[in-house]
Amino acid sequence: MPGMDGYALARHMARARPAVKLIALTGWGQPDDIAHGREAGFCGYFVKPVDLEAVSEAVRRVATQR
User: Fold this and answer.
1) How many CA atoms lie within 13 A of 5 on its CB side?
2) Confidence at residue 66, expressed as pLDDT on a 0 to 100 scale
3) Treating both helix axes as pointing N-terminal to C-terminal, what angle do 31-40 and 6-16 enclose, rounded to 10 degrees?
4) Nearest to 22 by CA among 1, 6, 3, 2
5) What sign results for the dihedral spanned by CA atoms 53, 58, 41, 1?
6) Is it the case that residue 63 has pLDDT exceeding 70?
7) What are the tens digits of pLDDT across the range 3-52?
8) In this structure, how many other beta carbons lie within 10 angstroms of the beta carbon of residue 24?
9) Are 11 and 20 in contact, with CB atoms under 8 Å apart?
């Protein structure tokens, strides 16, 4: 993404719109990448190729949280 990466976007969204929940779908899957994703505020972090059922479950879980 021009101007910012997904981690920066997640941090920005957490400040600007805390009710919005983000789930990462990425090719970056090293332990440091996953830790940075959690620190940035992603509610879920999936590395490609993904298990679509697991992604669907994460979306359902996040959608039912308040």
Assistant:
1) 8
2) 67
3) 20
4) 6
5) positive
6) yes
7) 899 999 999 999 999 999 999 999 999 999 999 999 999 999 999 999 99
8) 22
9) no
Q: What is the DSSP letter of 20?
A: -
For residue 50, the one-letter residue type is V
CB atoms within 10 A of CB 55: 14
Residue 65: its pLDDT value, please?
85
Could you give the CA distance from residue 7 to residue 53 in angstroms, rounded to a whole number? 24
- Is the Cβ–Cβ distance between 51 and 16 less than 8 Å? no
Residue 10 has which token pair?
């997640």
CA atoms within 13 A on the CB side of 52: 0
pLDDT (0 to 100) of residue 2: 81
